[in-house]
Specification:
Elements (H helix, E strand, L loop, with lengths): L2 H11 L1 E2 L3 E3 L19 H12 L2 E5 L5 H15 L3 H4 L11 E3 L4 E6 L4 H11 L5 H28 L4 H9 L3 E9 L8 E3 L9 E6 L5 E4 L5 E4 L6 E5 L1 H6 L9 E6 L4 E9 L5 E2 L17 E2 H10 L1 H6 L2 H6 L2
Length: 327
């Protein structure tokens, strides 16, 4: 059996609904006093289980309007439909920080997208005459995502039994953001299905918005691949290896991949939250005890990310964190 046919059968036979977290089941104000009462909310236990068993969950009723999400999808489909020679203007020597076009997908990578100048730099290369609609839409979107990611992080900290406000301010308040716009085009001459290399995100938290085409697959702790059902206007949240290490392995970071059908356009937009490059990552003493001995040595985030990018064999096997920092 060919690998592409095998992937297709897996997708049909192993479809899964991710654990659903309803954001309205938490308090609107996640600062100060309200955070201390999060342990009283039943939804927190469901989130804890999702982070432990899957490292993935689906977020609904998240407060980002349907109108904004639809507009974000439209302006980015327009961006991706531009001629290749125009999009190539945004390419730099670092494909991870600019435009990149591969054999079966393309990406726009924007560092610190919440800063308007980051988006404006991309826009000025694609549209020298300006594109106010694109910039205004994406600045608004990224401000919403920055606030949402901050609140998600606080809830995750609370689910670990920690003082969420204290630990957010001392460990996560200076986290950086990065946005990646992914396009899979029917104009590319794919035959059948193409599978993007499986990987784990190196950072803390990823907030993924995708269209209704589907194609996202995640691997369970038992090693089985599951096709994730799409759900309009929801976000898929996944935890990265840095948060897994910071949580002392209490929370999971799962392998995931995209199986894209060459005859269907697909769009996804990932918003990554990561520690600053020179941050030393280590699990706080509150998460280390006799039942949970320390699992990872302290490591610098930039060095870990470099290891993932240069050692593709480790990345493909999903063992980079254990090989790099495991005790």
């Amino acid at each position: 059996m060919s690998s592409s046919l095998q992937c297709s059968l897996e997708a049909i036979l192993s479809e899964v609904d991710l654990p659903v977290i309803d954001f309205t089941k938490f308090p609107e104000d996640l600062d100060g006093e309200e955070l201390s009462h999060l342990q009283d909310y039943p939804m927190l236990a469901k989130l804890r289980e999702a982070c432990t068993e899957w490292g993935f969950f689906r977020l609904v009723n998240h407060g980002v309007s349907v109108e904004l999400l639809d507009k974000v999808q439209k302006v980015n489909r327009d961006l991706l439909s531009m001629p290749n020679d125009v999009k190539d203007r945004a390419t730099t020597s670092s494909p991870f920080d600019s435009y990149y076009r591969g054999p079966n997908h393309e990406t726009f990578n924007i560092v610190e997208p919440s800063k308007s100048e980051s988006l404006e730099q991309v826009c000025s290369k694609i549209w020298p005459e300006g594109n106010l609609s694109y910039c205004e839409t994406m600045v608004t979107y990224n401000l919403r995502l920055s606030n949402l990611a901050q609140n998600i992080t606080k809830i995750i900290l609370a689910s670990l039994g920690l003082d969420a406000e204290t630990f957010y301010l001392s460990h996560f308040a200076k986290c950086t953001s990065r946005m990646r716009i992914n396009g899979y085009s029917s104009q590319q001459k794919n035959i059948g299905e193409e599978t993007m290399m499986s990987h784990k995100d190196p950072g803390c938290v990823t907030v993924l918005y995708q269209d209704d085409v589907g194609g996202l697959e995640i691997r369970s702790k038992e090693g089985k691949w599951f096709n994730v059902k799409p759900l309009s206007h929801s976000f898929v949240i996944n935890l990265g290896d840095s948060l897994k290490a910071w949580s002392n392995g209490r929370y999971h970071s799962a392998d995931h991949r995209v199986v894209c059908k060459g005859w269907i356009d697909r769009l996804s937009i990932a918003f990554f939250i990561s520690f600053p490059m020179e941050t030393e990552i280590w699990a706080p003493e509150e998460l280390v005890d006799k039942d949970n001995p320390r699992r990872y040595k302290p490591f610098i985030f930039s060095q870990f990310r470099r290891e993932i990018r240069t050692n593709t064999d480790d990345r493909e096997k999903g063992t980079a964190l254990e090989r790099f920092a495991g005790i």
